[in-house]
Amino acid sequence: MYTRRETLLQMLWIGGAMTLASAVWGKPQEKSRVGRSPAVDPLCTVYRSVNGNPAENLRKVVELMGGVDTLFGEDDVVLIKPNAQWWNQGATNLAALSTFVDLIMERPGGFRGEVLIAENCHRGISPWTSTGSGWAKDFERNADIPGIKNLAELGQSIKKRYGDRFTLRHWINVAYGAKRVFGPKDGAGYVYCDGTGGVPLLSFDNGVAGERHRATIMTYPVFLTDQGTVVDFKNGIWEKGKYTGRPFRFVNFPALNHHSVYCGMTSAVKNYLGVTDLSGGPDPHQGGKLTSQYYNFHSFPFDKWDHGPRPGMLGAEVGVFLNSVRKADLNITAAEWVGLVSRVDPPVVRTRAVLASTDPVALDYHSGKYLLFPNSKLAFHDPDDAKSPLRQYLAACAEKSGCVLDESRVDIVSYDIYNKKSQNDDLVLHGEMYWGRDPKSLLKYIYLRFLPI
Which terminus in the chain has less CB density within 10 A, N or C? Predict the structure, then answer.
C-alpha cells in the first residue's frame, strides 16, 4: 500500500513521463516565435552563426565581425578565459576554443604575440588533476575534436602546435596556496583591492542595513606566460619595473547553461567569477570572506546555494569589476549544447550556435531570450521577467557598468550556415533535445518547470 507521499511522487513521475515521452533525439520541441523590431540607434551588436559545427560557427562569427586581423594586432598578448569548472555542456566547447586560438595564431599579416588560456575553476591547489572540473574529467559531449576528451588534453594539443607562443595558466585562490601580492613587482598571485599595500580600495556594498549588510572588493590575478611575460590583469604587461603599454586583449569565452533557482542562467556575466579569488568559500555564514571585512564574489550576492540579501548583486559586483578592473574586449558564447537544469547532465538541447559581442549584458540577454528560455521554458531563464534572477542581475550589471540591457539598442547580425543565408526575422533557436534516462534529472526538470518565482 502506497503512502500519500509515494502516490503523489508516482503521479508526478507518470505525468512527467507522459509529457516528455515524445521528446527524443533529433526531434525539436514545439516551436515558439519571438518577433524583434529593428534596432534604433544601436549601441552594440550581437553576432551569431547557427546550424554549423562549432568550428564553422566560430569562424563565421569572427568573419562577421570583420576578421581576426581587425580584432587583434600582430604583437598582442591575448588572454582567453573559458568555462572550465565543469565538463560537457558546462564547459566551453573545445572545438570552438581550439579554432579561435588557431585563427589568432594564423592571423593574416602575421602574429608575433602570445595567446593564453587561463581560468580559476576554484578546484584546489592542482585543478588540472581535478576530475570535478573540465580539466581532467572526460567529456561525454561538447568536445567535438577526435582524440581530445577534456580541457587538459586540448591545452597539450595546442601547446604542441605553437610551443611557448601558447600558455595554459591556472589561477589559484589564495586560500589554496597562491600568494597575495600588491602588484607585479611581487610576482604571480592575487591582488586584493582593499586599500592596503599601495593598492587602491575598490569595494562595493549591498546597501542593506543590519546583519544582512555585506561588502566585497575587487580581486584580480598577476601571472606569467611561458615566454616569461608578466601580465597584470588590471593594468597590463609589466617589464623591467614598469608597464610597457604592449597591447593586452581579454576574451571572455563562456558556455550557456542553467545555473540554479537563485541565479537562473550562467554565461558571460557570471564567467567573471572565474577571474576573481573566491577564498573563504560560498557560504557567508561559514567563512565566505577574503578578509575580516570583505566577502568574495560568491558569498557576497548569495547565501551559499540560495538567494542573498538583495536581488541582482551578482550583476552589480561584476558591473563594478568591468568599470574598475577590466572589461573583456570581446565576449564569445559557445552554445553548441545548452543545459536546461544542469551544467553536466541531461536534459540538454543542441542549439548549434556561437554568439559574440563586446557587451556581456547584451549577449547574455540575447542568449537567454532566444536560446535558453525558449527551450527550457523555465521562468528563471526569462530575461524579460522582472522576478527572474537572470533579469535582476543583468539589470544591475547594466546599471553599474553602462552595458546595454535594452534590446532595442542592440543590432543583430546572424548567419545560418546550413541554409547559407543571413537571418533577419525569427531569431529563436529550437535545438535537438536529449532528455537522458535519469529519473532524478527528469523530475528535477518537471519540478522547476512548474516552480513559481
Answer: N
